[in-house]
Every structure is written in structure tokens, then in C-alpha cells.
Amino acid sequence: MIAATVVLSAVISVVMVNINWDGQQASTAAPQIDDLLNVMIVISAFVFSVVVVALAYALYKFRAKPGDESDGEPIHGNTRLEVAWTLIPTIIVLFGAGYSWDVLHNIEQREKDSLTVDVFSQQYAWSFGYPGKGNKWSEGEFHVPVDRQVVFYMHAQDVIHSFWVPEWRIKKDNVPGITTAAVITPDRVGTYQLVCTELCGFGHSTMRATVVVEPPAQFRKWVRGLDQTVPAGLMQSIDEATGGQNPTAVGAGGA
Ligand SMILES: [Cu+2]
Fold first, then answer.
1. DSSP secondary structure string, 22-77?
2. How far does residue 117's CA lie from ligand 1's centre (Å)?
3. Cα 162 to ligand 1 centre (Å)
């Protein structure tokens, strides 16, 4: 039974860990999140294997003989077993919580020169404001410089949406009435897709935007070329969510 459990969890782990779930790693957080995911996959594969092997063993070993119509044996508590199946899962869950906490703490460390981007989400479109750059505004596409921390402030206009660029790994819900933030340092130049990852209505699957990560000089040029500023209605949604205390526009002076 032990051998079967070990073999099954090894096979599942190898297959699952080798699947490229979210594409390239394009942010500093991506390797840490992938490691966390892989550790969780191995633990889950082990727990799954214990359950499946025990179930298969019990089904085979304790099956009724042909013609046996009697009731099963009445079994009362087994203290050792109950302590074990409470304690072991508790330890696993606490380990997972501690490890996740540590990863989240690492990837949310703020840097002084970070760039602020306001993210506006509504059924079924994204738009983006640059508070440090005169509130320049872009619809359906946003650019960020490579290798610089970006703090995204989320402002949902109607229902809950969720901000996710798979290659950056980090996901953040956009919740009406409050401002949530995602801290991301893109470290790979390229074009990616922002997808809404919270079922938000009929057009949910089409709610996407283009993400361009580029060298700082190109980014500055792109922002300068934007000819619109954030519309008053969207600015008002920031004020309402923050009681007039707009999140500090960091990065105002820099690139
Ligand atoms: Cu959405």
C-alpha cells in the first residue's frame, strides 16, 4: 500500500509539475509563485494518492462475499486514527498558509521608484490612467517599462472583475466601491494579454486588453503620445472609493 501510494504520487507530481500552466515567466514574482504552485501540487498529489489507494484497498479487501446480505460491523471511534487525520492535515494547511504568506510578503514589498497605474474595469472593457503623467488615459491597451515596479490601483465601475496577466502570475480582484492594488515588476520585454478572470457577465470572455512591456525610453514616448486624459466619471470613481483621498501617485517625478 505504501509503495502504491509513493508510486502514484510520484507519477502525478511529475506529470503535473511539468505542465506549463501559465506560459513564460515575465515578472519577478513569477518564479516564486511557480515554486509555490509546484510544492502545493506535490503535497496535493500525495494526499490524493493516500485517499485513492486507501479507497481501492478497502473496496477490494472488505468487499462482500457473494450471497452475504448481513449488515456491516458497527465500529466505534478510533482515537489514534482520529488524532492522526486531524493533526496531519492541520500541519499541511498551516505549512501552506505560512509559505504563501511569505511569498506574498516578498512580492508585495514596495520600491521607492515604482510607477502608479490606475486600472478601470467595466463590462466589458479595460482602460488605464497614469496619475504620475498628468492622468494620461489609454483604452484597451497599456504599456509599462521593463524592470521597474508597477503598482496597479483597481477601480471597478460596475461588478467585480479581476486583473490577470498570466505571464506575471499575479491576479487581483477589482471590487466596486473599494480600491485594491497589485504590485508587479515586469522583467521581460514583450506583448501580453490582460484577461478578466472573474465571470462578470455575457461579455466576460471578450474582456481583454493588450499589455506591452518595453524599455523605459519607448514607454515614455508612448505615454507622451497619448492624447486623452482620464474622463471625469472615472476620476470620480476613484474619489468615491477613497473618500477623496486618492492613492498617492508615486513615480510622478521619474520616468
Ligand atoms: Cu470582467
1. S-S--BTTHHHHHHHHHHHHHHHHHHHHHHHHHHHHHHHHTPPPTT--PPPPP---
2. 18
3. 6
The Å distance, Cα 202 to ligand 1 centre, comes to 10
Rounded alpha-carbon distances, angstroms, from residue 201 to 161, 188, 206: 10, 32, 10
Per-residue confidence (pLDDT) for residue 254, from 0 to 100: 39
Instruction: Using only the alpha carbons of the chain, give its radius of gyration.
Output: 25
Question: What number of residues does the chain have?
Answer: 255
Which whole number is the average pLDDT over 219-223? 96
Count of C-beta atoms within a 10 Å radius of residue 214: 18
The span from the CA of 2 to the CA of 49, in Å, is 10
Mean pLDDT, the chain, whole residue set: 91
The CA distance from 44 to 41, in Å, is: 5
Gap from CA of 212 to ligand 1 centroid (Å): 20
Secondary structure of residue 113 in the 3-state scheme: coil
Distance 170 CA to ligand 1 centre (A): 16
- 17-32 in b/e form (b: 16+ CB < 10 A) is eeeeebeebbbbbbeb
- Tell how far the Cα of 200 is from the centroid of ligand 1, in angstroms: 5
Query: Is residue 167 within 8 Å of residue 25, measured between CB atoms?
Result: yes
**pTM for this model (two decimals):** 0.85
User: Cα(178)–Cα(252) distance, rounded to whole angstroms?
Assistant: 23
Which has more pLDDT, 71 or 206? Answer: 206
